[in-house]
Amino acid sequence: MWKEFREFAIRGDVVDLAVAVIIGAAFGKIVTSFVGDILMPPVGRLLGADFSNLFIVLAGNQTFATLADAKKAGVPTLNYGLFLQSIFDFIIVAFAVFQVVRQINRLRRPLVAAPAVVAPATKDCSFCFMAVPVRATRCPHCTSTLG
Questions:
Q1: pTM of the model
Q2: 129: left (phi over 0), alpha (psi -120 to 50) or beta
C-alpha cells in the first residue's frame, strides 16, 4: 500500500495540482488585498460609503458606527458590504483565470496552414480551345503548335 501511495503522490498530475493550489491560494490573497485595500476605498469614496462597514444589525434597535463595534458588542449582523467585496474578488479572479485559459487555448490551437497555390495542370489551345497539358508543345486535338 505504501508503494502504491508513493507512486500516486509523485506522479506529475498530483504534483502539478499541489503547485496549482498553492499558487491559487497566493493569488487569491493578492486579489483580496487588491480589492479590499486598493479598489474598494476609491469606489466607496465615490459612492460615499465604506464597504467594509456596510452592515445591518439583526438584534434590536441598536446602532453601531462600525462593524468592529458591532462585533465587539457580540451583536449579530448582516455584512452585505463584505459580501460585495467578495463578489468583486470573485469577478477579478474569474476574469484573470479566463484570460489565462484564453491564452492557453490560443496557443494550443493548431496553426492553420495557408492553402497551397496549385499551378494549373492544363491550358487551353488558342486554336481549338480544348484543354491540353501545360507542358504540351502541340495540341493533341487539332495538332496546332502551341506557344
A1: 0.53
A2: left
- DSSP code of residue 51: G
* CATH architecture type of domain 2-108: Orthogonal Bundle (1.10)
* Per-residue pLDDT tens over the stretch 24-34: 888 888 888 88
Angle at 78 between CA 56 and CA 93, to 5 degrees: 125
Q: Does residue 41 sit in helix, strand or coil?
A: helix
Continuous segment of H or E residues that includes residue 131: strand 131-133
Any idea where the domains of the chain sit in the sequence? 2-108, 119-147
Q: How far is 104 from 100, CA to CA, in rounded Å?
A: 6
Q: Which residues contact 111 (CB under 8 A, 6 or more apart)?
A: none
Cell numbers given for 61: 434597535
Cell numbers representing residue 20 in the block: 496549482
At which residue does the C-alpha cell 453601531 appear?
64
Tens digits of per-residue pLDDT, 87-118? 888 888 888 888 888 888 888 777 666 677 78
